[in-house]
Amino acid sequence: xxxxxxxxxxxxxxxLKDKIDALSSFLSSKLNVDVSSTGNKLFVYSDYLSxxxxxxxxxxxxxxxxxxxxxxxxxxxxxxxxxxxxxxxKKEKQKSNIPATIRHGW
Length: 106
What we know:
The protein is an alpha+beta fold and 106 residues long.
């Protein structure tokens, strides 16, 4: 299909490369537009779609696939990016010298 007059919107999937085919089919079915992929980027060709609407649809995809605990969607300039949460390092428990059972005198 000839895509000369259409705008090209970019979606950067980041570390979510294994779901790129599912995301492209989701966007093409919901929007009825052409979607192409190269590497970890998706390109959506549309005249009427704004980047904020595209962000909402990508966010909807993340929530419907139960990925919202590990990924979040942000709009940076004209690009919709999927980021991975940075986990806080867990602190190790300090071992104490108190025995597990306490003897009572009664």
